[in-house]
């Protein structure tokens, strides 16, 4: 990871705002590099006074939103072709898709909001939201609100640690893993409670 951070840091030092936007856009499309690392390095550049903190945050928000909306659009316009393909019909059954759409209608907004903090599964959630035709305005608004929280914090971490950018990246990675673990445990508990409730209802 240290080598990757060094290479990315050198790239962003050369291309600053444009480089940050390009990296975040590619991260949003699924390039195996957490966008939080790019944002933390963006904060480090602000510390070095190669960029300014407010502009870095602005570019960060625009970059992650463009990447997320691109994935959503890919799912919206081409996801149906995958779902309706005969080879995947046993996975994407009509019943399962109807259930997924009901879930998005009920919990879609909060799911998109929290997805911004879950680097491991964020891309999958965004492309699924598009495939299931989640309302585009709802998707954008929740993703935007989450980015207003997420991006300034991560950029500030890079700025706060200053020249110890490796520590900033380590802190961001640890916090991402903790958030992801909590989310998985929460989902597991809610699923278990739902199944138990459904079982009690059936027995009555």
Supply database-style keywords.
single chain, 204 residues, mainly alpha, 7 helices, 0% strand
Query: What is the gyration radius calculated from CA atoms?
Result: 19 Å
How many helix segments? 7
Strand content: under 5%
Structural category is: mainly alpha
Tally of discrete structural domains: 1
- Give the terminus-to-terminus CA distance: 55 Å
So what's the overall shape? Answer: elongated
Q: In a few lines, what is going on in this structure?
A:
82% of the residues lie in helices and 0% in strands.
Overview of the structural elements:
With about 200 residues, this protein is an all-alpha fold. It has one domain (about 1-204). About 80% of the residues lie in helices and about 0% in strands. It is built from seven helices and no strands. It has helices at about 1-30, 35-45, 55-85, 95-115, 120-130, 135-160, 165-204. The protein is elongated. The model is unreliable at about 90 (pLDDT under 50).
Secondary structure layout:
Layout: H1 2-28, H2 35-47, H3 53-83, H4 94-115, H5 122-131, H6 136-161, H7 165-203
